[in-house]
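Hi X.,

You mentioned you wanted examples for the new student's onboarding notes, showing what a folding record looks like when two proteins sit in one file. Here is a clean example. The first protein comes first, with its sequence line followed by its structure tokens.
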Amino acid sequence: MSSPVISGALDQTHALLKGVPADAWDAPTPCSDWSARQLADHLVNLPAQFATMAKGEQVDWSAPTPHHDDAAGTFRRHADDLLAALEAHEGSVPEGMMAGEFAIHGWDLASALGHDRSGFDPEVAETGYAFMSQALADEQRGQAFAPAKPAPDGADAYERLAAFAGREVPFSRNR
């Protein structure tokens, strides 16, 4: 049986990718080394990487991320493949790991584009935070995650997760 949290994370990420304006691909993101295009390419590739993990195969996380002209369409295909792999290999990839990746990078992209996140499911970020706060020690952060920063008062689940992942919350698009 597939996870409603992961299905929801995939659906909201797909909707976010469908809403990226053509002139926004070069926008800066909270991931300081990535433009919106590079971040979207990473997001598009994540379900394929998780599907590979679900099948018990090795993922080369350091491999260059391919560029996808149809980010939303390619993401949807990869997402469907991931759901099928998770159905066939239940419990093979930690739900919190996947939720954390989709929540953080969904927040990153929405923040970079100034998109409204009111429709984002807080359970996705909460599931990701529960996993990451246990699995990600300070010495494991490396290049992927900066040291945790304090979340502002009144921060929602996505903002708390983003701050834990070392993002500036709120993100200033005018940097």
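Then the second protein repeats the pattern, sequence line and then tokens:
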Amino acid sequence: MHYSLYYESFKNDDFKAAKGDLAWVLEHAPGFPKKDDRNFRRQYKLYAGLAKATSKKSKRRAYLDSAATVLATAPTKMGTLGLSFDAHAWEVYRGRFLQQYGSALPDRPDGLKTATAHYRKAFELAPSEVDPYYVRQVIQHCLDTDRQEEALAFLNTVEAERGSDPKVQKIVASAREEIFGKNPQAQIKYLKEQYEAHPDSAGIMRSLFDAYVKQGNVSKASELAPRLLKTNPPAKTVRKIAEMRLDDGRSQEALEAYDQAVEQGATLKAQDHFNRGRAHRQLNNFSKAQSAYRKSIEMDPSYAEAYVGIGDLYTQAVNTCSQDELGRSDKAVYWTAVDQYKQAIEADSSIAAVANSKIESYRKVFPTEEDIFYRNDWKKDGRVTIGDGCYSWINETTTVRPAP
């Protein structure tokens, strides 16, 4: 009778009417009718409902204190009585109550901690049962209180237990991104641990490589690169490895990386061809360097650096071919170099300072009036093709003009 009376009032939110009969049931038949936790559950909800309904501050506080006491003590009582209940569910009840009313309860009874502490305990008790919302609350609390290491450790646990849940996966990925955005070293530490645990994982290896690159840790990225290349990484990653090797003076290895990118179906961009030109130039493969620079310009006519690259290539060729003394044919090559620097300025005026400096330097070593006079095939302001002997690969037509 008391059960029916209180339940009828309770389900209609008439908590005041239900209060007395529910108290009788809890004293005389707490497990009625199925030896479970329903009566204790309804008692804490009843007090929370009464608190919400009253406009008097003192009564509201008293009701909330009563609800808190039920939440703190009910699991122990139910255990003693042999009633069935889900421990993790009661941790969630505690967390939800404290999340909603915690600020109004400065003095909490023993057994109640913080909302997120109870959500975390619920996850520990039944990781597959806890709603992702509560998982997110635990993580967010760690982030808000600047406990990144704790957050990362919990994220690892969550991933291990619920990694196949799409909603949980999204929460984990978002939280890690937030942490790593603020603390790059935490990302490195995490990825290193993952790599050590899964040394054959191409995805982890690539993420660690990208993290090293982002932080400017070229030595560590370079150390990882050979193993990474064996996993056939995306063309973007191969390009980055090629650039690193080029900057590090390992030109042949840079070219091999670009070749691998092409083999994997990548389409090289203007910058890639420019970098290949740099690599071939470092190896004194002048003809191949020239072809690569020209390919860069073909793909992007405004790529002024490629024109400068060709000009520098021609001046380097003079140093290689002339040996100890500049002959007339050697000096003529500077005509073609200056032509390239001028084209660079036409392609992009922002490079004018660099190009003009080179122009002024190399104009001074053009053939002299006397040099032009003694060459039967040269005529001032006439056209001549540079492409004999050591310079056969240049094959550029230029204008004959004397040094100023």
